[in-house]
Amino acid sequence: MNGIGLAVSTVIFALRPHPETGRPVLSIPLVRRTRAPFEGLWCLPGGWVDPAESLATSAGRTLVETTGVRPSYLEQLYTFGAPDRSPGDRVVSVVYWALVRPDQIGERPPSSKGPAFDAENVAWFVADSLGSPRGSDGLHLAFDHDAVVAYALWRLRTKVEYSAIAQGFLGSTFTLSELRQVHEAVLDRELDPANFRRQVEGSGTIVATGEHVLGGRHRPPRLYRYDTSAPLVDNGPLGELTPGEMS
Amino acid sequence: MNGIGLAVSTVIFALRPHPETGRPVLSIPLVRRTRAPFEGLWCLPGGWVDPAESLATSAGRTLVETTGVRPSYLEQLYTFGAPDRSPGDRVVSVVYWALVRPDQIGERPPSSKGPAFDAENVAWFVADSLGSPRGSDGLHLAFDHDAVVAYALWRLRTKVEYSAIAQGFLGSTFTLSELRQVHEAVLDRELDPANFRRQVEGSGTIVATGEHVLGGRHRPPRLYRYDTSAPLVDNGPLGELTPGEMS
DNA sequence: GCAATAGTGTCTATCAGACATTATGTG
DNA sequence: CACATAATGTCTGATAGACACTATTGC
To answer: Domain Nudix hydrolase spans what residues (chains A, B) (predicted)?
Structure first.
């Protein structure tokens, strides 16, 4: 007990159509602050930790309450605790990062149950337009959230190259083309379809379902699913946090 | 402000002679608890976060106070916050991991200044004898510190393979043989001297000083130092925490 | 057939690991 | 010289990237 406020925040990633090009682009929902400090500025969704709930549960709860999205993946990122990061009383924030599929984004507040979020003050931003260093051009967020977003972006991009994290953006089955497009959107560069196929097939993380997708004006691609016996990501002895463990 | 206690703990690594074989082995200092809960059990050094100090400063301060060592490297590991991880009031622990050189280990409490640590209740343990899963054989620590140690060990071993973290165990100059022995002790396996040399020379992280070590009954090895223009480790946008930044 | 994407094959540069060889100090 | 370790060289198998080629659908 030392009079330090403990909060959680979450950097949420989704692939959404770019407002101009329409191509899928890494996007982050932010919340506009409606009170001091930093009133009017955008910041990460979050809130206080309830003494009875775990940190991950707290992150999952607050992000649903404020943005209406239900993530398919949630992982702790880093704890930010500089004494001056928030005016007034000391606040330490345990920051998580999350992935959501398009179908997990509630564009409207859920009508029946749960607290409705304030849609007026929630908006999606292209990830690459955020996270620029203090003092530079571009949109700047409240608190130290510029640095937080930059770090989360780095972690996602690093991790997509060696883990099966991309499935957080995909449904239960998908084509190799869809999986590749996820990687391309995250890494923001094109990948060779042939080499990508070899790599991901050789990794053993995905399994062909035997089904194909018909209807395209071209050869029907195979459907794949992730091998559920393989871990989603390599987090060492900690393991990953799946939605089931979140609450 | 939510009535949650905020603490820091640190997993400290040093290379020390194995109590039986005498060969350098990864070792961790622990503190014996002198009060409930878990009185008599060993646990990680740590303490409460002072509202005025940063998390890293807090970690650095508490580990010096309790064990007398001054680390050459300190990095945040993970924040552990399960509601039931400590009996009584809720405690969330931000855990750091640290590296120390042999000369930074104060075997006796510093005589002149600072609080003397309780040498009776501090002891070094071979890292591989710790971190075993709950319920299995072996020494078990207070709180959730078994899992904490296991995770820290995983992180150190992962990181030594792609970063220049080994310098945390070495002085300002060293031979390739010494550097290799650090890697071998951390990874607990032998490395081919020739291939190790090529890899580390090719990485560009070390520079030959031009000097040699004489006196051995063999060809005198070159001395190297780390290239100070290269970063110690790749922590993304956060960068590393050097001792200078700790306080 | 043509367009479009799925899927396979092949070549090459690079790199890690195994291991042979040479170099240079001390006793 | 013998010995021990330093330092260099060479071979090989695995792999990533570039890119050519074949397969299969809809129109």
So the answer is: 5-157
CA-based nearest distance B130→chain A, Å: 13
Tell me, yes or no, whether B85 and B108 share the same domain. yes
The tens place of each residue's pLDDT in chain A, 247 residues long, gives 678 999 999 999 999 999 998 899 999 999 999 998 999 999 999 999 999 999 999 999 999 999 999 999 999 999 999 999 999 999 999 999 999 999 989 765 554 454 556 678 999 999 999 988 888 888 999 999 999 999 999 999 999 999 999 999 999 999 999 999 999 999 999 999 999 999 999 999 999 999 999 998 999 999 999 998 877 777 777 875 554 444 4
**B175 Cβ under 8 Å from any chain A Cβ:** no
**Residue B243 token pair:** 């001792």
- Tell if B194 CB is < 7 Å from nucleic strand C: yes
CATH number at residue B56: 3.90.79.10
Task: Estimate in Å the CA A195 to C1' C12 gap, whole number.
Answer: 14
Distance CA A133, CA A140 (A): 9
Residue by residue, DSSP assigns A194-232 as HHHHHHHHHHT-EEEEEEE---SSSPPPEEEEE-TTS-S
Say if B163 is an interface residue toward chain A (CB within 8 Å). Answer: no
**B88 in contact with A at a CB cutoff of 8 Å?**
no
**Distance, CA of A49 to CA of B175 (rounded, Å):** 49
A201: domain CATH number? 1.10.10.10
Is A20 inside any structural domain?
A: yes
| Residue A239 included in any domain | no
Same domain, B53 and B13: yes
* Phi, psi (deg, nearest 5) at residue A179: -60, -40
In angstroms, the CA A118 to CA A32 distance is 10
Its domain, for residue B85, covers 5-160
Query: Do B1 and A2 make contact, defined as CB atoms within 8 angstroms?
Result: no
Name which of A78, A89, A147 is nearest B1 (Cβ-Cβ). Answer: A89
Q: Identify the H or E element spanning A98.
A: strand A91-99
A79 interfaces chain B, CB cutoff of 8 Å = yes
Please tell me whether residues A222 and A200 are part of one structural domain. Answer: yes
Q: Chain A to chain B, count of Cβ pairs less than 8 Å apart?
A: 90
Q: Check whether residue B17 and residue B85 sit in a common domain.
A: yes
